[in-house]
Amino acid sequence: MDVDETLVAEAARGNREAFDELVRRYQSRMFQLVRILTSGDAEAEDLVQDTFVRAYRAVGQFRGDSTFRTWLHRIAVNVVRSHAARRNTRADHDDEAIGRVPAHGDLESAVVRRRMIDQALARLPPDLRLLITLRDVQGLEYREIAVITGLPIGTVESRIFRGRRRLRPMLEPLLARSAPRREN
Amino acid sequence: MAADDKKEDAVRRILTDRPPEELPSGAEARLRKRLDQEAPTKPVARPLRTTVKKKKSKTGR
Fold first, then answer.
1. CB distance from A111 to chain B under 8 Å?
2. Cα–Cα nearest to A55, from A15, A85, A10, A22
3. To probe the interface with A, which of B9, B13, B21 has the most A CB atoms within 10 Å?
4. In this model, does residue A101 exceed pLDDT 50?
5. Which candidate from B18, B28, B42 shows the least CB-CB separation from A117?
6. What is the CB-side half-sphere exposure of residue B6 using CA atoms within 13 A?
7. A59 to chain B: which residues are within 8 Å by CB?
8. Please, are residues A73 and A148 in contact by the beta-carbon 8 Å criterion?
9. CATH T-level fold of A3-87
10. CB contact A174 to B (< 8 Å)
11. DSSP for A5-41?
């Protein structure tokens, strides 16, 4: 049994401390996911809270058909979708900022790099943005993404490939700076 | 083709290395407070297994 499984089993028995530990392990990742999917929505923190509240209510019924990580991501994606449907708008990203190319030295700054990446992701259609974020930012496996989205694994793979191609020109300033990593 | 693969790999690497943002200050405490308002989780009672006695076959050998 891995750490998550143990914590989930405890949380399902009503052990609140175990659930708090799951929150500590996943809150940052969920915040990151929600921020990207909503293009930096100011309500991201509320949406992350909604995600964990839903998980807390349902953890007693968690059957372990998938990992807790997959299950939690699925809840977060549903929370974001409901939020988007309520708002009935596409993410309100800063179009003006997208066209702005940072000065050469600025690309070293983590904040600038993150903003550039997020702005590029925000220009993708929502379905591609979701898949690319789950795979490349969150580091999930293709089969986990298939479970979360309900798409066949082949579709997940081909859409991620397509998404990366579309991102290429938008990330060009960062691509020019990135040197291939040396393998040990 | 190899150049294409390299570029795709570079895109993937940039995304993988996206600098994570920090949680807003106090976010964990705010979430804990919200969870405090929730009723404690109750495990679902699973139905007990009942054993069904099989009828003895009359066709003895």
1. yes
2. A22
3. B21
4. yes
5. B18
6. 9
7. 41
8. yes
9. Rna Polymerase Sigma Factor; Chain: A (1.10.1740)
10. yes
11. HHHHHHHHTT-HHHHHHHHHHHHHHHHHHHHHHTTS-
Q: Retrieve residue B34's tokens.
A: 């919200």
What are the pLDDT digits (tens) for B10-38?
Answer: 999 999 999 988 899 999 999 999 999 98
- Residue B52: what pLDDT? 57
Calculate the alpha carbon distances from A169 to A36, A39, A163, A173, B39 in Å. Answer: 19, 19, 11, 9, 49
CATH of domain A101-174: 1.10.10.10
Averaged pLDDT for residues A11-22: 95
ipTM of the complex: 0.81
Contact of A170 with chain B, judged by CB distance below 8 Å, is answered with no
Of A105, A108, A133, the closest CA to residue A118 belongs to A133
Contacts of A178 in chain B (CB under 8 A): 10, 13-14
Q: Is the pLDDT of residue A161 over 80?
A: yes
Cβ–Cβ below 8 Å for A23 and B28: yes
Are the Cβ atoms of A113 and B41 closer than 8 angstroms? no
Residue range A102-121, pLDDT digits in tens: 565 666 688 889 999 999 99
Segments making up each domain of chain A, as ranges:
3-87, 101-174
